[in-house]
Amino acid sequence: MAELTLKNLTFRYKNTNQDVLSNVNFTFESGRLYAIVGPSGSGKSTLLSLMAGLLSPTEGDVLLDDQSYKSLNLDQLRREKLTVIFQAFHLFPLLTAIENVSFPMEINGISPAESMPKAAKLLEEVGIGSEKHRRYPANLSGGEQQRVAIARALSTGAGILLADEPSGNLDEANSVQVMELLLELAHARNRCVIVVTHDLELAARADQVLPMKDKTLSNA
Ligand SMILES: Nc1ncnc2c1ncn2[C@@H]1O[C@H](COP(=O)(O)OP(=O)(O)OP(=O)(O)O)[C@@H](O)[C@H]1O
Ligand SMILES: [Mg+2]
User: Fold this and answer.
1) Which tens digits make up the pLDDT trace of 85-104?
2) Which of 49, 88, 156, 160 gives 82 a disulfide partner, CB atoms 3.0 to 4.6 angstroms apart?
3) pTM of the model
């Protein structure tokens, strides 16, 4: 399935004179969960934004299956191949849980008649029972909202999952549950899962831990 490569990747924010990332080289493979760890300000979210195609490299390249992002339609990439889960979940507050999950499929042209049963199945798979499918996010716990966000991320079948502090708002039990869910996605469904986290204990569950150090991924 999908493989994401960073090649001599360097990034500096405009109007600043310091690189945030310098000469990062790494290949992320499908079927594995990677945890990127590092202190605040070390460039973790910046790296994730580059991998999501939301920022462009200052130098170097990001490649999906050997194809440079420069040659890809990045809107299409984010609709079909890659998905991002943010710390604050970014669920639509005026859509129910099931509508949140069905929405990306509808954007991709799938009819509600087809997308709603798929959304229900995805919610069941992340442990959200049918009695909660029609609740609004505000009426779900933080852990449940995060699982809805994961179900939504899975709805388009994207091979690459990027998650920025996916359990940042959650207590320990829920954090572990979210991490287990992401691990299962990597292992049982052959997704490439890349998680940014402050939490070293959670990170230790990953297949590979990659500390951000000196503006690059060490261990890499
Ligand atoms: N839009 C921006 N313009 C200029 N500098 C920025 C911008 N966004 C982030 N930075 C700087 O880039 C560096 C890396 O930021 P980044 O958000 O990637 O860190 P992080 O590792 O995700 O931190 P945290 O753990 O606090 O989320 C920091 O020094 C930050 O101040
Ligand atoms: Mg960050």
Assistant:
1) 887 778 999 999 999 999 99
2) 160
3) 0.90
